[in-house]
Amino acid sequence: VGGWSECILIPADRKQGCGTGDQYRQVRCVDTRSDSPVDDEYCDWTTQPVDINACHVACPGDCVLSAWSEWSSCPKGCIGNGQQQRTRSLLRAAATRGATCQHTIQTQACQLNITCFTYHWVVTNFSSCLPLGGSPCGEGMTTRAIYCQRSDSRPVEDSWCSEETKPTPAEKWCYVDCPVDCHVAEWSEWNATQCHCGETGVSRHAFISTNPSSSGRPCPSPLVQWKPCPAVPCYTW
């Protein structure tokens, strides 16, 4: 935000060189890290400072007052029927025929989310577990955002929430299971006892030494193999 320009009088007052006018200033959205200007869309338009302001150039003999001070602070949390005020001081008293001084104190009611606010901590859910060093699995960290929020949902500096204990932790250790593949140790022998009069096939089954994890390679299917029996004669008395 730049400084205010000189008061530019309205056309009707320019001839006499005093009276009512407007003053201007440059308001830009900037990157706080580099102080370089950026597009206005990156800034919150609801908090954009005004870039034009009514002003007055005193005529000879008129009362002259200073600019208004900043508004005083409202009570935290807008408790009760709070008010805030601002003041200005006398710089030159009015001459006999000059314009008299206007009031030097202004007051206004404190209004929630307009002139006063409440503040509280906001805590997001923890993120997914992110393994360290770019690994696909193993030890990692999970994080969450913890910030101070104003009652109009605008994030503000943590100092505004200093009366409340800040939640912890913002990060913690976690672990992502590494994939475990199924491992078949060996196959059983073919069950030759199955081949006798009237039977057509013989089978064997796999011995699994390691069961797979949810992300590992599954076991082969089927885990039972079959092949036909050789011809077996049937005898009877």
Automatic annotation (TrEMBL):
| Lineage, opening ranks | Eukaryota, Metazoa, Ecdysozoa, Arthropoda, Hexapoda
Which positions are tagged coiled coil? none
Q: Does the keyword Signal apply?
A: yes
Keywords, sorted A to Z: Disulfide bond, Glycoprotein, Signal
| GO terms for biological process, alphabetical | actin cytoskeleton organization
Q: Where is the Spondin-like TSP1 domain?
A: 63-113
SUPFAM superfamilies tied to this protein? TSP-1 type 1 repeat
The yes or no answer to whether the keyword Zinc is present is no
Species name for this entry? Cuerna arida
Recorded protein name is Spondin-like TSP1 domain-containing protein
Q: Which GO terms describe its cellular component?
A: plasma membrane
